Structure formats: C-alpha cells, structure tokens
C-alpha cells in the first residue's frame, strides 16, 4: 500500500511538472499575427508553414561576426520555406519550396516567392503559399539566424553529412565531406550556403537534413531524459521560435513527434530556370507539381 501511495504521488508530481512546464514554455514563444486576409478552403490533414528568416534582429556586432551573417539588421527576407504536412494517418511529408520560385504574390503580381515575406511578412507569405500550392496552412513557425544557431548549441550540436566539401566565406562555412557533428554557427552556414553545383536546389535539401537532425536531437533520450540539459534547451528553443497567435507549445510538440516517427522529404518539382524582370527565377514543373500537391490535399 505504501509503495502504491508513493507511486501515485510520483505520477502526480510528473503530471504537475509537465503541465506547469508546458504552460511556462508556451509563454516563452514569440508570437505574430501570421493569418492571411483570407484562407483557401480546408484541405486534408494539418499543414505547418516553416520559415527560416534572414532577420538579424537581436544580434550584436559580435554575433554578426561569429555567425558570418552580415547584411542589414532586422531585414525581412527568408531563405527557408517549407510546408510540413501531417496526415490524419501515415507518415508526414516535409516539402521544400525554393525561395526563388516564380509565383503570383496576391496584390503584387509575379515574383520570387520569398519576396512575399519582404512585402507583407508572414500573412502575405502564408497567403502566397496557400494559393500557389493549394494547401491550407493551419500553423506557422519562424526562426531567425541567431535563434537557429542558439538552438543547435543548446542541444550540444547536430550531425550533418555533406557529400562534398563546402568552402563559402560568405556563409562563414568551411566544412569537409562526410558525417560530422557541427555547432550552431557551422549549422547556420550549412543551411545558408549556395556554394555548390545546384545552388538553391542543393540548399533546400540541406535545410531538410538540418531540420530532421535538429528534431531527432531534441527528441532523443540524451536530451529529453536529462533535466540539466532539458530545461535550458526547451527555454532556448521556445524563445527562438516565432509562431502565430493561436499556436502553442503543444502544437510544436506534435511536430516533433511526427518528425521523430519518420518523414518523407521532397522539393516542389522544378521544370527549369528563367531570367525575368525580378532576376533569375525557379520555374515549377506544373504537371509534376500538381501531381505531388494533389496527393497532400
């Protein structure tokens, strides 16, 4: 009877810790109004728009030098645009959208898709992604340069596996081929660089590799079962993300669980490139893209 009573108290303590800890983490999230003026009709499953912004907001001059970011403080550009599709049943799909994709931006006309973020922030980007893909966006999550590096350092680094060495002074990156553990600044350079043969198309693959590696590290027993690492890690992670006003930490937890269970990764099919009034752009293979996207709707 005594053992049963102790077990009951232990379970009650764990439950209180989880609830209070979850509510505390939820207060650490940064929030913006990411809702577009109007959504398209509902589509199947649940879709997250995941954005890696070029914002240097909050970075000191030392941070800029350490991370090799340069550029304008607080700029509004995005190098990473992904849609995470969580079906009702089955494996999740992580879909990369090249930032130079030539699409219609509502109210502005044809342009590179990342221009939507510059012109109207999260709401316009979300609306543009919905209308381009036909996928209703249910949740939004954004992380800036400093936040990305801090999260990687908080989990003790992640493993990446470049197939070839990459030397890119502009991204402050010099990395050898093969699987290796990298710290925050190196991981940031790894997802930013375009100094490989296929440029942005290679980069979107590295971005998906990075995201999967980060989620696996966050949900690993080494992180999750170590209270000395767990608390500072979740504090850093929560404080590094910006989500929509209606999004909460338990929504992000579902993303982690889905990714940890395995995910299909892909890129919107590309049909070619073209020089336009907005520069060199990525053209989608419309038939292949519609076939892929219709399977997610």
Automatic annotation (TrEMBL):
Transmembrane segments: 6-25
Domain Cell envelope-related transcriptional attenuator, first and last residues per copy: 77-219
Superkingdom of the source species: Bacteria
Gene3D superfamilies in the record: LCP protein (3.40.630.190)
Pfam families, per the entry: LytR_cpsA_psr
Keywords per UniProt: Membrane, Transmembrane, Transmembrane helix
NCBIfam families xref list: lytR_cpsA_psr
Protein family according to the UniProt entry: Belongs to the LytR/CpsA/Psr (LCP) family.
Protein name: Transcriptional regulator YwtF
Organism from which the protein derives: Corynebacterium gerontici
């Amino acid at each position: 009877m005594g053992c049963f009573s102790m077990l009951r108290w232990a379970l009650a303590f764990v439950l209180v810790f989880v609830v209070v800890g979850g509510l505390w983490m939820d207060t650490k999230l940064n929030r913006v109004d990411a809702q577009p003026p109007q959504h398209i009709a509902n589509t199947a499953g649940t879709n997250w728009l995941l954005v890696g912004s070029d914002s240097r907001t909050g970075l000191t001059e030392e941070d800029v030098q350490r991370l090799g970011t340069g550029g304008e403080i607080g700029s509004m550009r995005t190098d990473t645009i992904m849609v995470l599709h969580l079906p009702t049943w089955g494996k999740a799909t992580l879909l990369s959208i090249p930032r130079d994709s030539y699409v219609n931006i509502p109210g502005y006309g044809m342009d590179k898709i990342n221009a939507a973020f510059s012109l109207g922030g999260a709401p316009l980007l979300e609306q543009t992604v919905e209308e381009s893909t036909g996928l209703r966006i249910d949740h939004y999550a954004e992380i800036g340069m400093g936040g990305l590096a801090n999260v990687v350092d908080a989990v003790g680094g992640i493993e990446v596996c470049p197939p070839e060495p990459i030397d890119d002074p502009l991204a402050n990156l010099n990395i050898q081929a093969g699987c290796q553990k990298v710290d925050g600044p190196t991981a940031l350079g790894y997802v930013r660089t375009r100094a490989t043969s296929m440029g942005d198309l290679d980069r979107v693959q590295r971005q998906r590799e990075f995201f999967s590696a980060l989620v696996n590290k966050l949900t690993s027993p080494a992180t999750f079962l170590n209270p000395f690492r767990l608390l500072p890690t979740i504090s850093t992670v929560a404080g590094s993300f910006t989500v929509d006003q209606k999004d909460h930490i338990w929504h992000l937890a579902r993303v982690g669980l889905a990714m940890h269970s395995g995910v299909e990764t892909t890129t919107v099919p590309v049909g070619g490139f073209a020089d336009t009034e907005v520069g060199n752009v990525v053209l989608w293979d419309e038939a292949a893209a519609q076939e892929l996207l219709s399977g997610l709707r």
